[in-house]
Structure formats: C-alpha cells, structure tokens
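Progress note, project year one: complex with S-adenosyl-L-homocysteine.
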Amino acid sequence: MTRGIVHLVGAGPGDPGLLTVRALELIASAEVILHDRLIPKGALDGARADAELIYVGKEGGGPSMGQNEIERLLVEHGQAGKRVVRLKGGDPFVFGRGGEEALTLRAADVAFEVVPGVTAGIAAPAYAGIPVTQREVASAVAFITGHEDPDKPESALNWAALAAFPGSLVFYMGVRALPRIAEQLIAGGRPSNQAVAVIERGTLPGQRTLVATLADVAERAQGEKIRAPAITLVGSVAGLREQLQWLEQRPLHGRRVTVTRARAQASPLAARLRELGAEVIEAPAIRTVSVEATVPSLADYELVCVTSPNGAHELFARLRASGRDARALSDCHVAAIGPGTAAALSQHGIVADTVPERPVAEGLVEALGNYRPRRVLIARGKQGRDVLPDALRARGAEVDVVVLYETVAEPLSPDVAQAAADSDYVTFTSASTVRFFLEAAGADALQKPRIGSIGPATSEELRSHGSKPDFEAVPHTPDGLLDALLADVAHQI
Ligand code: SAH
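Model obtained:
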C-alpha cells in the first residue's frame, strides 16, 4: 500500500488570486480535503471529481467540528494511505492550529508536509495600503492573538511588553476585544494618538478599512459596525495608508457588476472586471448544448459562414469527430460574424477571409460586398436569425444551414437572482442572455441596476421586454462593453 500523506496547506486570506501555485496543485491531486470556512471562493473548483470534501469549519458561529475530531480524521485518512489536504485560511502555522495537527500526525507516524500561505496579518494591511514594516517607521512586526481576554489573570500576553514593542502590532481575532486591547496598550505606555487600522474582510470583495487612534478606535469600530474577520494593526505605519491606498482607486472599486454570459464564456470578461476592482456576480442565464448534426462535405461550398465563437468550436469538434480537420476548409472562403468568432476560428488554424466591422448579420452581408458565392453553408445555433440566409439567397446563392448547438436556459438560484437585482450593473452579451435572464430573474431584476448591452440585437431584445440599455458597446465585443461600462461609471461620478 502506498503511504498516505497529509499536506497542511494555507489557502491565503480570501482573494482567490492569493492561493499559491503549490496549494492549487495539491488541491487538484488530493483524494481527501478537509477545509475551513475562511478559504477563498472557488478554491475547491479544481479538486478531483472523486475527491472526498469534508467541511470542518464553523458556520456563522455555530458549532464547529472539535479539534480532536479533525485530528482523528487526518490520522485516519493518512493511515488509510490517502493523499490528504488540510486546507486552512491564511497560513496554517499562524493562529491556524497547524502546529498541533502536525504534532498529532508525527505522533501517529503519518507523513506530513506544510505549504505556507499568505497570512491575513500581512495581506489585509497590504490591500489597505499599509506596509507592516517601513524603514525608520517600523523595524519589527509582532503577530498577536486578540482572542483571549486581556483581563484574565493567566493571560499569556504581556501587555506592558507589547506596549513597549518597537514596531507594528498586528492583532488577529481581536474585534470584540478591541476596547481592552486599546486600553491595555495605552496603560502600558503607547501614545493614545498612535494610529490604528482595522481592516475587515481583507482582500475580499467589500474590504473595509478604518483608520483611527488608540484613543478612539474602539468607539469608531463599534460605530462602523466592524465585524470579524478583521485585522487590527497598531503602529505609525497605519498612517501611510493616506498616501499608499490603491485598492479603492481602481476604476470599478465598490461596483457590483453582473455577468449573464454562459459560464464557459464568462471568465475573461469577469476576470477583467475584477482586475478593475469590481465585485462580479456571475449569473449565467444561458448554457449552450451541442445538438446532433452532421457537417456535410465542405468542398461542396464556396462560402462557409460561422456566426458565433461557440459555433466555431462546435464546427471543429464535428470535423474532428468525423476524422477531418482545418484542411476541410482549404478551398472555402470563410466568413466570421465578428472578431470573437474570428479569434475562435484562428484557435483551430483558420484565418477568416471576411470579418465585418459591425458584428451582426447585416454587417456580414455588407462586408461580402460584390462577392456572389453559388453555394453557401452557414454553421450556427438553433435560435439564429434568418437575416443572413435570406440576404444570401436574395443574391442568388443556394444556402444550407447546419445547426450545431442550441442555447438553453440555465436556472439561477434565488440568491444569485437577488444579488443580480441588487448589483450596480447588469451586462448582456447576446439577445438570448436577455431573454433567459429575464425569464429566470423576473423583470423587476432590472429595476435598479444600470444596463449594458453588447450591441443592437441585444438592445432590441431589451426593448422588446420593456427595458432599455443605459449604454451600448462600440465595438460590439466584450472589450467594447467593458470600455462602455467604464465610460458610464466615469460619467456617473
Ligand atoms: N491562519 C490564518 C489566521 C486564522 S485566525 C492566517 O494566517 O491568516 C482567524 C483570524 O484571522 C480572524 O479572526 C481575523 O483576525 C484574521 N483573518 C483571516 N482572514 C481575514 C481577512 N480576510 N481579513 C481580515 N482578517 C482576517
């Protein structure tokens, strides 16, 4: 039997981008994953389909699995020869009980390895624009648990020593103890006007930072209703935030933007939005599914039109399934409806001969100019419009349409529908996303948000449902939509 191993892995402070490469590798190969509550959203997306995922955290302050039980499970799976990941928020050895778990594993003779994570005590201040050390300001930094009651006689913390510590004091788990922490540090000799930063939900959407002084931090944190998880940093470096804050300066900071594209296509747009500071709500209203279809011999066609990126991928999947490849198109003139479709075709080795400036059927007909092909094949989805085949037939072409996929509704959970309705922007990238989003979320979902449309067909669909876009992308691409959204935000300020 292969020997089991337990990896004690830090998942970072919450931003999925701060998961380490090693953490992702181990998550992808683990057979058993025991995880906490404070791990980044989507951290387990890459886990094996057959991995056993065991949640061992606390739900909203409710009962958590006891530490003994967690350690028992780690030993049990390790001894059973499994590859186990114990995934914890931040770093496993910083207030994460990773040391205790390692001791238990060693005692049970189960192999273990440790993967450090980005700890909240450094990451949350960094996202708030606060370096925990700074030449001539703070030459040392202390990590402290604020969890214990500073009044307890047996307190492990030496408050006088902490007050005298020549550097930044970083408190974990200290929100409730804030009044006592401030009091004790002042009593120990820290100046009452020293800067304190409290960073709530560091690196997560909705991160909030309060900068106060030791004298008023407790009162102000209560006034602002600061809640766990939060890091409290005491030290002059907190004052640097005034000059160094960067998170809040991103153009979409604090904006919630809903993306309604199919999940498979949403990621690049969602990633760009997040990079610009937006909180993205993924509300995929549609999904494409392949339909049974045979692609005829392409040598019989002079012109082949592809009307969506998905159509391009589906076309090549069929060609490959029947033992063909890009050479099947070698004698054809290939037209793509727009830049996205052209990019999808080029992934399969085909550079489109015609790409219209306006990525709509009318634009494509226009772009074909005087070209009068005799036989035309249009590869498209089931719900496609008839503009293109009609126009080509009107020019005397014999037109065949091969339907490769259909767009179906993707149900939205009530939570996601509500989050979309509460967002600042809802973006639509096709007429079908409009139709299916409204079906799933209801017409009221578009009452509050501003609405962005990728182009005329999408805008028309919005109007037909009694709504209207606040802005339309030029060019009619996801990048164009992003630019239009940025312009709208700038205009709103
Ligand atoms: N091992 C973790 C700490 C676990 S203790 C680490 O290295 O980060 C839990 C405490 O960590 C919370 O009470 C809070 O003080 C802090 N914390 C964790 N995630 C946080 C976040 N995203 N923002 C602010 N504080 C966080």
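The chain has four domains: 5-117, 122-249, 256-285+410-492, 289-409.
The mean pLDDT is 93.
No further modelling is planned for this target in the current period.
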